[in-house]
Amino acid sequence: MEDKKEIITDLVETGADISGSIAGSVIGGLVAGPAGIILGGASGPLITKAFKKIGSEIQKRFISKREEIRIGAAYAFAIHKLENNIKNGRVIRTDAYFDSKENKRSDAEEIFEGVVLSAQREYEERKVRFIGNLYGNICTNDKINREHANQLVKTSNNLSFRQFCILQLLRDKKSEQNLFPKLRSIDETRIELGDIIIEIRDLQQKGLISITARWNDTDDNSSPIAYDDIGITANGIMFCEMLSLDEIEKEELEKLNKSARIKL
């Protein structure tokens, strides 16, 4: 049977096509033994158990090469995020999240399998980083219980990468408005692209953004959306934070904003 480090390391290495240099950084930490943040420390065995158990199950499943690459990348991003969180002063949760119950696996194992399955099936590979980030952030946030974690995994699975970008643009917009509360668009800038409107309305239905209704809106929610009428909700901000959407490349956000004018 493979050593627990080897199971994890093999998967992380496989995912390097997507995770790039992060894979090398994570592997370096794993090989370092006790010095590695994930395998070292009092909570190391608890976290490693979830990674190892799901990894062992993956090796027994029939999956395509590309699916294996996405899974490996999710491992790398999850571990990397967890390492960074710890370096930045956050601590691994000490509640019952990692505890196994009688005839039941731990919440950590359940949520990680959800993350892995999401990554495996995710053809929009730009999302894999943020799906992995989600798990790393859940491991250091004891305010997120199992049900909430499952809901976050499901939501991340159902949204497109462009919707991730829309949320982050709206989060940036809110931050700017907090700094300049009187700032409003001089002209009646509107979002008019039909496909963007569909994705924005979907985010509204999920409670992640809010849109002020106007008297002349059409019944099918296809009306252009004025810049000042759209904003991110508290749930939307939390979603951005839990997936660390601020790591989306600036070029991706600028490209979307140029065509949709979501943020001035």
Give a nutshell description of this structure.
It contains 12 helices and 4 strands. The chain has 264 residues and is mainly α. It folds into 2 domains: 4-158, no CATH class; 162-260, Orthogonal Bundle (Arc Repressor Mutant, subunit A), CATH 1.10.10.
Please supply descriptive tags for the structure shown above.
elongated, Arc Repressor Mutant, subunit A, 4 strands, mainly alpha, 59% helix, two-stranded antiparallel ribbon, two-stranded antiparallel sheet, 2 domains, 264 residues
Give the arrangement of secondary structure elements.
Blueprint: H1 4-14, H2 16-19, H3 21-31, H4 44-59, H5 65-87, H6 107-121, H7 128-138, H8 146-158, H9 161-179, E1 190-191, H10 194-205, E2 209-211, E3 225-226, E4 230-232, H11 234-243, H12 250-260
Antiparallel strand pairs: 1-3, 2-4
